[in-house]
């Protein structure tokens, strides 16, 4: 099953992406698959914040882990709604999620 996720890029363009729930992907990998400008330098280990995004609506997300919290405490452009895309697995509960890519560091 696919879920619809909207991601606003750094130019303000909103991309409506079909995200498969059966491939064990995360938001960072989804952005890369659709060629959105997300580096993911650390490969999804919550060690670089290059996939930081802002959550724009109220969709249930997994709790923030210690590694993600520590990385965001050191990152630039952090807001209260910041998350690392690599730490958000794509599941059916993300249907309708709206995100905005954070500025590049």
Automatic annotation (TrEMBL):
GO function terms (MF aspect): 2 iron, 2 sulfur cluster binding; electron transfer activity; metal ion binding
* UniProt entry keywords in alphabetical sequence: 2Fe-2S, Iron, Iron-sulfur, Metal-binding
> Which Gene Ontology terms describe the biological processes this protein takes part in?
P450-containing electron transport chain
Decide whether keyword Cell cycle is in the record.
no
Q: Which residues form the 2Fe-2S ferredoxin-type domain?
A: 1-105
- The residues the entry assigns to the signal sequence are none
Name it: Ferredoxin, 2Fe-2S
Q: Which organism is it from?
A: Flavobacterium gillisiae
């Amino acid at each position: 099953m696919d879920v619809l996720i909207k991601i606003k890029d750094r130019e303000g363009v909103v991309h409506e992406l079909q995200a498969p729930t059966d491939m064990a992907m995360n938001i960072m990998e989804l952005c890369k698959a659709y060629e959105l400008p997300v580096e993911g330098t650390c490969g999804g280990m919550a060690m670089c914040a290059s996939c930081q995004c802002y959550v724009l609506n109220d969709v249930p997300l997994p709790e923030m882990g210690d590694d993600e919290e520590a990385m965001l405490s050191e990152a630039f452009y952090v807001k209260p709604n910041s998350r690392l895309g690599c730490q958000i697995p794509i599941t059916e509960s993300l249907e309708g999620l709206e995100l905005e890519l954070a500025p590049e560091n």
